[in-house]
Amino acid sequence: MVTIGLLLGLVAGWLRKGSFWSLGSPSMRGLWLVPVAFFLQSLAIHLLHGTAYVIMLAAGYMGMMGFAALNLRIIGIPWMAAGTLANFTVMAVNGLRMPAYLPVVQHYNPQLVPLLLAGRLGKSIAMTSATRLDFLGDIFTFKMSPFVSLFSVGDVLIAVGLAEVMQYLMTRPKGGNVSDPVAKTAP
Amino acid sequence: MTPSRKLRHSFAAVYAVLGWVALFTWSVVTHPTPSIPEWVVLYTLAGLLLFVERFHIPVTSLEVILSLETVYLVAFSWNFPIQTVIWGGMLYALVSSLRYKSDWYTQTMNSLAYVAAAWAAMEVAHRIVGVHGRLNVMNIPLLLVYSTTYFFVNIVIVLIYLTIQRSRRNMKLFLDSITSFRAIPVYLVTLMIGMLMAIVIQNSGLGGAILFTGLILLVAWSYGDYFKMANHFKELAIRDELTGLYNHRHIQSVMDEWFAEEKPFAFLMLDIDHFKRYNDVWGHVHGDDVLRKIAGLLQEHSQKGELCARYNGDEFVLALPGSDLDELQARAEAIRRAVEQLELPRVDRLNRPPLTVSIGIAVYPEMADNKKDLLMRVDDAIYKAKVTGNNQVFLYESVLDEVQEDLAQEDPEQEVVRTLRVFLAILNSKDRYTYAHTERDVTYATALAKKIGLSEDRLRYLRLGAFLHDIGKVEVPTEILTKRGPLSKDEWVVMRNHVEMGVAIVRPIQSLAACLPIIRHHHERYDGAGYPDGLKDQDIPLEARILTIADSFDAMTTSRPYQRKRNLDEAIAELRQCAGKQFDPGLVEPFIDAVQTIGILPSGGQMDLA
Asked: Domain holding B194: CATH number?
């Protein structure tokens, strides 16, 4: 989903006559937090269990939200912040696990169902009557054979925000000076 | 913002919120928890609505905007439980209202109108088909019921809102837009697109809606461009490129509109004094700068609803509704002063007088009842400002108008005045000096006549006669009238002939018979050396003797190509010197008395109309 957002942003930025070179100097505060947070999250999801998992994943999310808070004024970042918050909230109330809608998985990727039910599919667990805030969980699917993606509304918001950030970075005026064309207006 | 207005807006906001609460309560009661697939639908709907809210499809030729929200609400309500649509609509309302900041309730209201209309239309459709009956998009009667309900519920909700808000302007705009037939085809097209999307969703689910959105975006995008281009061309057509003000074409068409609506308005025309000289000295690049500066200044001095335009090369126009003369003069004066104080480095450097403007004002309907007359009036006013020394504001006024009022009291037959006007207009266009001079003559002659106690009746004819005394000059060729050097013998013959010509022109008008002697004899001299009849002493009619003095006095005190302008004392001395020769000695002293009271009337100095 994040990849789609990234691509959409690049395409939109290019259509709006932005420059790919502008991406070289993003001028955002605390940019280092992003790779660190990604690293912590991957670490937690793929290698850790128990308390270590909880702490690492929470730290990863905190890093992402810290970055968002530092750059809240940049267009698109509020969407990303809202998405991250939504994902984090639903995970927080479900033991830092993301509930996934079982029928969808069954339909598109039946071989994953046993993994999901066993709780060994990344950070996902199956959505049951015991899970809470299900509507914030992984309920959307995107299928482009052979690739199937399961994502939450929070992911959509992050993607939308990312797309906006990308095209903002590509099309923003250089030198920070917005030259206003002389307005020729009638009174 | 007055408290009452604030209060009304708060009521309107409460109305929008209560509407949503009611709708939402209904949906929660009838369908408490949406299933996960329904969540997917409502998220998608909200997302798409938020997305397309930024795009409009302007239908330029109809001046209507196609609202895409309706498309989605129709398509979704036709395929999914209406409760899901309401949830999605509410999510959309919440998020998009945030974007409107302090105006949030406008958007809350808009979304309510769409979603509630979709809800009502769906309820009606279900009543007809039965709750579990399958809705078929191709069921045309059902479709008609659905669309009519949607349309009316939408309108009613907005109308109630506008009534609470009591914004007359919005109400008028809204009523205009729904009652205009132009909106109906656009609404129908919107519905058709909605139905088409409903079919797409029926066949291929939400993915279909997303693909369809791509198509809609493409249309919105290209139409947006087209719309921008059309606007650009429209602007080009009505704007002056150099100054950014409206152009001659636009001001003319606006004036036509105002005349058609019989809307009273004032027309201020500014003419830059000696602008040709400025251009010659400093070049047109700097000249253009000046034009731009004055245009900017004019815009600063204009208010909403008023129109600034560049009329011609160095002439600007401010057209404004209403016609309070005092206020107009004050505003024109403020503009004149502002121009005088305008900083133009090049002008100051040479210790030259600052750049100035002359402003003429005429108002409709008081001074003219059609465009051509109004323009002529304002032109006259500017001309007066110019010939009397530039850098002034002149309101149009004419002695002829007073004479006309005089005549109108007794003589309802306005034909006479109209005929005279035509002649005077011809004379005016041939030789503006003569025309302005005529107006001054009337004033001087009237002053003298009042001094010696001429009867009211005779005074009226004297004024008319004074007005018409040079009308014969219409027949004198312009080359002779405006010749700068002395006239040849033959030319003098033609020139002297104007008195008889004048008589010939006025003779057919019965009611002006009493003016004829005045016209014929205003060039007679008291000593008998005048023309055309060489009358002497009291043989010359009294009115003609009065006019001779007035006429000569004006000639003495204005500069003509062949003579120097005299001041008051010099003129009085000359009048006394010629008493008994050219003038009736009995009238000279009363005239001097009279003229000392009114002073020399303003006239052109060195006439320079650049």
From this structure: 1.10.1760
